Amino acid sequence: MSGIHRIIFNRLLAAWVVVSLLTGAAVSLLGLSRIDGQLVDLTTAELAKVSAASLPLLNRAESQRSALNQLATDFVHHHAIAVEFRDRNRNKVAVAVNPIEAELEQELRRQSYSFPADADRHFKKITADGETVLRVLVPIKEPAGEIAGYVEGTFLVDRETLGRLRHEMIFTLLVVLFAVTLTTVCLYPVMLSLNRSVVRYSNDLLKGNVELMEVLGSAIAKRDAATNIHNYRVVSYAVRLAETVGLKPGEIRDLIAGAFLHDVGKIGISDNILLKPGPLDAQEFETMRTHVTLGVEILRKSDWLQKARDVVEYHHEKFDGSGYIKGLAGEAIPVTARIFAIVDVFDALTSRRPYKEPFPFAEAMAILQQGVGTHFDPRLAAAFGGIAEALFREVSTTPDAAVESRLQALIAKYFFASR
Ligand SMILES: [Fe+2]
Ligand SMILES: [Fe+2]
Fold this sequence. Notes:
Blueprint lengths: L2 H52 L11 H13 L3 E6 L4 E6 L4 H9 L11 E7 L2 E11 L5 E10 L2 H65 L3 H18 L4 H13 L9 H4 L7 H8 L1 H9 L9 H6 L20 H16 L10 H10 L7 H19 L3 H17 L3
Antiparallel strand pairs: 1-2, 1-5, 3-4, 4-5
Helix pairs in contact: 1-4, 4-5, 5-6, 5-11, 5-13, 5-14, 11-12, 12-13
This protein binds fe (ii) ion (2 copies).
């Protein structure tokens, strides 16, 4: 399973578990209270049969209660474990216990149960001896609505009825879980396609940023003819050295952008200095140095191009602190700028410029060697010494167009392949 599939699958699975648990718990609670409600309704309907008949008999003197006792006895015989009648003062006036269930009734009486404070219908579900028993108390009312007394019935819940109601609840639960599962499964392709859109948009954005980097790099190349292929070569050298010393992919991305744009500030240097065939005088050199701050100012316009900033700002710093523009020394100079300084000078030495012929490889390396510890980081220079000859041979025997396409491959590897 690829990365994004796994992420979407795991998140949907987590959502499915949470929603299933919550809806399952809600359905179960509602279902159980519905079962209780249905059982109470059934038993209340049973009690209603005897309530009307007991109404004229409830509040008679003790000697006249035989009819009420008979009513209670007949009722338990057909319908219940026990029944109790109370008069309007809540005094017990008739009790009957089904002889078959007398033992269970004894057991139930031992469980605490008090007369409710108000006059509404009350019920209590009790489990005793593995049976479910429902005790329901209903007020008996005069036709005018006044309370004449109470009847309390104790009923054995029929296992078949209970089983049917439970099955109905389980069925509802399964239907709800099925609906949750179906919704989750339907969401999968929706989320996948949304994610693809996001990836497409962010790739387009990245492509635009990389193009901006290349456009800016070639804009300065149009002013200084040497810079275009110089840019391509220094990026290749810099990436190879960075890989050799184990820089992280994120640092290598910054290095590529920085190498591309290292002299972008030269756009702001006048032609008579930038294109001067001979060496610069002190004043001209001072002006030339401002290409570093001009470059930093240009990059400030884009957040994405800030990744190039370290190389642009510090590519003329020297390891002993004698460089410009800040005069940083040693490891205070960002590693990307220290790497770049080596490959920039190496390429300048081995390239043809309007004012000089290229130095042979060995001579260029000897000059580079003179700057180790003063201009260049010794550790990085040593690493470059190990790969320079093969790298130089590879780049110098490759046509410029192929150097450019190799560079595009590096951009693809570090900017797009990791996404
Ligand atoms: Fe520069
Ligand atoms: Fe350069």
